[in-house]
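User: quick one
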Amino acid sequence: MSTTPEFREHRYVLNMGPQHPSTHGVLRVILEMEGEYVMDPQPVLGYGHRMHEKMAESRSWPGFLPNAARMDYLASLIYNHGYVGVVERLAGIEATPRAEYIRVITSELNRLQSHLLWLGVLVLDLGAFTPIMYTFEDREKILDILEDVTGSRLTYCYMRVGGVVRDIDDKFIERTREYIKWQRSRMPMYDKLVTGNIIFRKRVEGIGEFTPDLARRYGLTGPVLRGTGVAYDIRRAEPYSVYPDFDFEIPTETGGDCLAAYLVRVREIEQSLRILEQALDRLPEGPFLAKVPKKIKLPAGDATYAVESPRGELVYHLTADGSEVPYRMKIRVPSFSNLSILPEVCRGMLLSDLCACMGSLDLVIPEIDR
Amino acid sequence: MKDYFAQIFTGGKSLLVGMMITLREFFRPVVTVQYPRERLPISPNYRGHTILVRDEEKPEKHRCISCKMCERECPSGCIGLQGEKREGVKGLVLVRYRLDFTKCSLCGTCVEVCPTDALDYSNEYRHVGFRREDFHYDLLAMVEEQK
Ligand code: SF4
Ligand code: SF4
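Assistant: Done. Structure below.
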């Protein structure tokens, strides 16, 4: 593309969002265009800002539990897990072994449903309507399983310091096993329908240039980073909960484009199924909630707890001054850093490729505007 | 030239494979439910808005002792309740229990802190209203209406 002065005259500004179907939320991107080419995309944030961090500082710590689920509506349980994890670490409480297993099982189910939704929606952004119907059929099965144990379908408030609210029963285990079998049987179909589809491949292959260096500069994590060949996953890099007990792979690809991010996510589905299987087999007996004092004062000091969300590294950093109310809470969300690469990576792209690129980043806007 | 035809061939083949999959879908059972006309059974563990549990053994038909624990612990501040001293009755008698469901986050804190297990979740998920006040539920009236 030439950007000589006379061409600059043809530049115009296009406003994408805040109500655009392929931004999946209230994200606005101001695009400086030259014809069909995006010359300068600038994301504008804050349309759904709810001050979650401030809210954490203005109420006693248990009051933040429902908030934790509402930042990333697709990974509520993983956000729950991170929050109870940081409080436990600070207060020196340990959850029971059974509770840790239940946390891992429910978190992985949550990750699966997030990946399934992403798969459907990415392809939908690229113009194919059918696959989202199939992924929703699968996802519905997970939501039904989780609804039965947590009581809600999207914004779960299931984990507590010391354990979880409700124990899982044989019915849950049986349904989850059935689901694992079902999901395995579906993957070859997605392979043929989406991965092998020539139009899909042409739309994502070679689009976006993600490199480890770029990732380091912007703090890019998650499947997009693993698509550049870096096997960085918090579940391995800084193991938390009972993840070290399980045998699973961290899928990586070397393409560094949207297709690589796509392939990593699809392969992660299989790995999550493997973790689920092992966790169900080894589920220990015992209480699902540890005996914890009714009122827990947070000791002065700070603690950090990182978890792997479907979109990358999620970190809670909690500072307390000895009272029940946190002094400061910092939440590092993956989508925020992942979005920040947009101006650099998408410069000079076709507008339709920008949609593919944002789709592979799997942005969840309420998480950015937390 | 050869490349050109090879591409058309692979492209056409991948489209046919996709079409076959969607075609197969025609013969599978329908999974969608026509919502207002058909309904799926809802899990008994579903968390709807909170209710006072009906207890026939108690004279007031519920177990609340108006201790205000739930009101104090609710992170969203959506519970408003009042107890009253009555002649000849030990403790307080609940005269008002209002739940502002517009603010409730269904976190479950109130259900967990209640010392007498007076609260539970309902199974109600169809909340429709035109005004804010339509979602201000009077739990006491609800438990009294129940048979
Ligand atoms: S569920 Fe939570 S937000 Fe709702 S009334 Fe009870 S304590 Fe308040
Ligand atoms: S905590 Fe239970 S007993 Fe106390 S006021 Fe609330 S509902 Fe009534």
